[in-house]
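Checklist before submission:
- one chain only
- standard amino acids only
- sequence pasted in full

Submission:
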Amino acid sequence: MSIRYYDGETAEVHPVAVRVTTNELVIYRPAGTEVVARWPLGEVAVLGDTQHEVVPPVVRRGSDARLIIEDSRVRSNLASLVPALQPLVPQPVAVGRRIAVFSATIVALVGVFWGVLDYGTEYAVPFLPNSWQEQLGETVLDDLLADKEECEGTAGLAAINRLANDLAQEAGYPHPITVHIVEGGPVNAFTLPGGILVFYSDLITQAKDSSQVAGVVAHEIGHVVHYHPTKGLVRAYGMDLLLKLVSGGYSEMMSTVGGGGSLLLALRNGRAAEREADATGVDLLERRGLRADGVSTFFQQLMEKEPKDAAAAAGIWSSHPPTAERIEATKRPTTGRPAFSNAEWQALLNVCK
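Returned file contents:
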């Protein structure tokens, strides 16, 4: 039975056929000419639509009678003749509009979430317990240095740790600083939460003089006193949470607890943070009466080795300001006391031997 009629008074099912006249929907028995019901077209309606029901019933307003039309071709024909029966036919879904609305909603939610995360992190992180930050930093350190050799020269480590703590105290940072030196390269250093600094020995041995190493130490202390590493990790965890919420928990794009590469990605500082660390580092050296030209000469040495300046080439996508800009911003005279005594500098040069 492709069309069934229920009179609303009994449970009997009537197999019927239908036709449309000028003013009526005529329901009749297909075996003969007996008319079962005549519904004025102005009183015909559809309960629901095909998006929510497989076969929405056709009714006459004010009556309990129902007409179930299973044949899709009949439904389409009736809908073309009677506008009130349009819900019998599946309507084209406005996919583009729905995608646009969904995308705009997601973008708005991401914007609000990131705004709260960014500004909340900026002001809340300094109040986190230092023990928690130290534990976080040590966990990351263990992961990053799992397959690397640390240098253990006592005098050299004492020298660089002494300078780092002096600068931190000058900045009013109330917690101890710990510097680790890893044997080999690259010519780099980075800061972890909880006042943990990591230097590669190639940075020390390839420096032109002790003022360059002191400049890098001061720069990293700038990151420490502004809590840049902890802020970076908190933002990364927050973004990871956001991506998982948006993707239903299947996103692994920002896994900050994975390998060392993703941890370093989370710890990368933005250009504003790098500029802040540069300025703070130079200021701390000058306040201690130490030579402060090593920051700019270190960048100059990097520029000589890499004239193309990857940061400038990357433009807005770079996490660091252009090197030439950093050189100009940190230029200082060669006046001031050396940050290390001759004995300390020699011990630092031999820290891995």
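Reviewer check: Residues 23 and 46 are 17 Å apart (CA to CA).
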